[in-house]
Structure prediction request, 194 residues.
Amino acid sequence: MSDSTPDPDDERARCWRGRGLAFTPLEIEDAELVQHWRSDPSAAHETGAWPTSLYGLRERIERNLDDDSRDDFLVLLPDGTPIGLIALHDQQPADSTAEVYLMLAPEHRAKGHGVAALDALTDLAFGELPMHRVEAFTHTDNTRALSVLTAAGFVHEGVRRSACLHRGRRHDLAALALLRPEWEAGERLRSWEL
Prediction:
């Protein structure tokens, strides 16, 4: 699939829903679409990851499918259009912690989908999984991601100085987290109430 137009004969099973969107498990066949999103210069800069070969990305997705410490999903609009990738990875059952990753297609950014996707994922992490803490890391100059994370209830905890090398330059990483009591205190509708 090279664009974000869904094939009406290929309806994806929705395993989780949020405000105006749904999640479906990431499949190996989604590699071309994910590679397209990762090739966007803004995404490459913001995530600090350069696009790999399609073959390499397929192999990574296949390895991740067997990794019990992560859950990867495509984010879908109600009509089935895939608009991004979200993951709850590095899940540590003993500590009840996990890290979140979110990447939206360029044409679907700044429309509220990022906050809705993070809300749905934290509902999954705290409402269905035994997580106590969900973390996120991004460049300190990635104001768009910081704004989305803050709007989804994540609290800025600190900075990991010079923690990332990208384009020959060291970057500081902002550390943010959402704790179960903070999620419980939120007054928005949960995914299962929508």
About this structure: The helical segments are 31-38, 41-47, 54-65, 113-127, 143-151, 180-185.
